[in-house]
Amino acid sequence: MGTEHWQMVNENINVVSNTPLDLWLAACNYFKWCDDNPIKTKRAVGVGKDAGKEVETTKQRPYSIKGLCLHCNVTEEYLRDLRRVNNNESEYYTVVSKILYIIYTQNAELAIIGEYNSIFVSKMLNIDSQEAPQANIKVEIVQGLPQLSKSESEILEKLDLENSI
To answer: Rounded to whole angstroms, what are the CA distances from 8 to 4, 64, 71, 80?
Structure first.
């Protein structure tokens, strides 16, 4: 059986990121650890000749922000602060954005195909609470415009009157 995440943290195998590259490499290490250490559970077989027999099942371990933070020895606030910089030229911003996209994509894709519970994933990723961006809309009432026509024939009649003058 693979190493549990708490054991890695307890054994101080985790990495502190001093540079954007360190953070990226630590995140890649976390993703690889997740892939190499699937979650194993036991369940009873419900039907067939093996009914009642316990079998081990393996499920892909989901990537998570909290798991990443444990693995990299950083806090969520640290990642949020790096992301808030919102400067496309900042290497930290680029690295954190890419890491968050990877986590989001892995969770969303596996929820879409039914591997993960889609309701849980949508709540965890705040998918249902993302609001449309607010826009400033200005409504201006313009006076003195010509009255709209009610049909095409009315328009043609007005054009005929204009051309005959």
So the answer is: 7, 16, 8, 24
* Tokens representing residue 99 in the block: 């890491």
Q: Is 41's pLDDT higher than 70?
A: yes
CB 71 within 8 A of CB 29: yes
CA distance linking residue 91 with residue 11, whole number of Å: 30
Burial (0-12, 13-18, 19+ Cβ within 10 Å), 51: exposed
Tokens of 43: 């369940």
Burial class (CB in 10 A: 0-12, 13-18, 19+), 94: middle
Sketch out the chain's domains with CATH numbers: 5-130 (1.10.132.80)
Q: Mean of the pLDDT values across residues 123-152? A: 70
Nearest to 126, CA basis, from 85, 77, 61, 65 = 65
**Mean of pLDDT values over 53-67:** 89
If pLDDT is split at 50, 70 and 90, which confidence band does 43 have? Answer: confident
Backbone angles phi, psi at 50, to 5 degrees: -95, 15
Tokens of 14: 């985790």
Helix axis angle, 20-36 to 91-112, nearest 10° = 20
